[in-house]
């Protein structure tokens, strides 16, 4: 393992990051905000460090698998350390830990914020905050679909590439080509949603910010009251549709473009993901309606208005929150912390399910949940027929045993880490519901949880150490845990 | 599959059950309680139905594996249906669902009660209630160590029998002999604890009832305030020691008797179980002490007394509650629902760990937790060395892949069922903490949970349907889930 090669890639990454800071700078100049200096200085520092690393580190060979993991983990950490600079220099985000927390929350597409008054922040900084989502979302898609497989990582969805069958990945085998196609899809969806949101009355700035938050399944908004602040059914529907699309494996969008609708429809993870969403929306709608619950819309006209039980209003709130939470976006139109226990717990479970593999969504990923359901069913069948051999099948494909084993290992590790972060937060003195919901809301890259981290709350009240742990939890969740743990394992392993 | 053979065994079981009812009858007669008629009538009904089934059903061949599962599941259900008869006929336990809940809670060694005023119940009935623990505890040891392996069930601890090595089970290979030895150990421990408790000032009746509750890791007490009611440090220490012993694999007690101390000490599950307990006790003691928390002893003199922070009092409360909860007993000396979040959550996690395999303890079992920890560690190592092959090792023994697979399947199924019961309770309108803690407290066969099912509370307030689901959850937990699910799978499976 050579640190030179790792640092060189980090340098290139920082250079890209500094170039990206030009966009918030433009918005800052356009809106004449007081954040121009902060963004400019951050840009210069990031560029300088990036150039220094890129120039001084010499590289003579290709990247090895283990180095790849370190590059990825370190990349996300450095991006957050430098990405938080504009916030820190401006001063409106408070301590540097706050700024790194916010940047990590952005790059990991979590969307948990430490801001208490979002509307007071200059627009350039808020644009940068949303742009970190978009960059992180793109990064994770490239990583999981285009890059990680070549380092030997078997991601949940990759069973398709492992076994012959009709759903086998037919995108170009070359990384560069795949990456290009994915960039095009991601950018295409971005342009489309931005235009559609502008039709709904948003200006370009707001449309872009919310598009970034949607497609990256991030959840940062430019308003304290999130999507509720627009109080516009059309905007809600557009965002629901694009959150849903962002939670689909991006390979499937490629099928759509190629008009291979059959391949799209046949995909078992997509079917599972869609069914789970429909079932959860129905259950929560009925729960709200039958319990005569005010959905607690966060819109201004709802606060003064009297509550009348209405199944369409229940559906409106349930559909938006379920899609937002399951895809791990975290946008809000209603304060679901006020909903009945059943809806609240169901939403927490949905946080574990998360998006599809190869999407920008977090959580454990739908395909993994599907595989463990099938595995458990198999174990029961095995008891009835001890001598028979059962394979885990998804659609017509047998999932090889090592992949099933890796998937169950991942699920258990995910639950262990969830437990660990929960225990830590409880140890720091936070109440039970806040502790476990903040734990899954960060590990699953969702953002809002329950109780003190609920839809109308934020993460500002946590102590600095807890903020560091929560930021690390986001990173673990985003990079699918293994690569981060491997990073530490590699450093500590004795030969 | 022949129903005749299944029903005949059920008949024999009911006959044994009716014979066991003689003991509470004797106590009822001795204390001249008003429960003599209820117990007598229940005894006669149970005996009559038992004889009817045993005589009318003809059996010509041995029991097959699948029939074995049904016999076991149905056995526990019938025992609860008939075991609840004395309570129902007497009338002091309320509805028949209440009575079956209480009997199921007894036979599954859960110890969750629907009684609000335990001291008002006649002593014969309370003795029967505690005796159900003892019978259930014995049943589960016989089942998991002596009987199930012969039906092809690979229980967590049974890897020892599967692989050669120094810890291989050396008890007689014949079921009857094994069963006999286990009976002797169980009875021996019972006599010993009863005598030790009587030394502490308990009368025979109380000593027996609490011994049953301890050795079965049950938790029913004859007092509303549980062990706190005796306010006696000696009694607490005796019960801590015997709860601990009840959570150890009973095969290890056999080693102790044979003076094979080395084999005892070498056992990896025992080491893990003991380490987990020591770590948890230390953590909770420090948490209570450093947070300046009143342990909330449920003893009368504590209620009026002023609280002074004292590390020995913290240790006294922490040691008792940690051992009680981890071994899934559920006796209480302090109201741990009033403890800081960290201690509460840690106790909830301990509920998942549970006792050792082959003990009377519930939960997921220590060996399974140990195996999944090792499995997860392996998956991380695999990422660093993709071409190397790693085996899950416990001590010097490799755990074969099918067993690792079954263990992970079990753990995931356990978590899924926990989630399912939690969702159901939330759906019925109970609050979040009550829902999830009642779910694990029943599935793990513990008894007390948090919030409305906390140490000073009971299960009386649940609606009838929830009581049925909770009773079923106890059964699922007690029979290690698979056998119960297989029961339904066998019935519904189409050929």
* Overall spatial form of chain A: globular
Q: Please tell me how large the radius of gyration of chain A is.
A: 22 Å
Largest interface: A-B, 59 and 59 residues
Percent of residues in β-strands of chain A: under 5%
Count of DSSP helices of chain A? Answer: 22
SS class of chain A: mainly alpha
Q: List the quaternary state of the chains.
A: homodimer
Please give the number of β-strands of chain A.
2
Order of helices and strands of chain A: HHHHHHHHHHHHHHHHHHEEHHHH
Please give a handful of descriptors for the protein shown.
22 helices, two-stranded antiparallel sheet, mainly alpha, 495 residues, homodimer
Helices and strands, with pairings:
The structure is a homodimer of 495-residue chains.
Chain A: H1 3-20, H2 22-31, H3 36-56, H4 65-83, H5 85-90, H6 96-107, H7 123-147, H8 159-162, H9 175-199, H10 204-215, H11 233-246, H12 250-257, H13 261-266, H14 268-290, H15 300-304, H16 311-326, H17 341-353, H18 366-384, E1 392-394, E2 397-399, H19 401-427, H20 432-443, H21 464-478, H22 482-492
Helix pairs in contact in A: 1-3, 1-4, 2-3, 2-7, 4-6, 4-22, 6-7, 6-21, 7-9, 7-10, 9-10, 9-11, 9-12, 10-11, 11-16, 14-16, 14-17, 16-17, 18-19, 19-20, 19-21, 20-21
Description of the molecule:
The structure is a homodimer of 495-residue chains. Chain A has 495 residues and is an all-alpha fold. The first copy, chain A, has 22 helices and 2 strands. Chain A has helices spanning 3-20, 22-31, 36-56, 65-83, 85-90, 96-107, 123-147, 159-162, 175-199, 204-215, 233-246, 250-257, 261-266, 268-290, 300-304, 311-326, 341-353, 366-384, 401-427, 432-443, 464-478, 482-492, and strands at 392-394, 397-399. A two-stranded antiparallel sheet of chain A has the order 1-2. In chain A, a hairpin with a 2-residue loop joins strand 1 and strand 2 (397-399). Chain A is globular and about 65 Å long. The two termini of chain A are 13 Å apart. Residues 152-172 of chain A have low confidence and may be disordered.
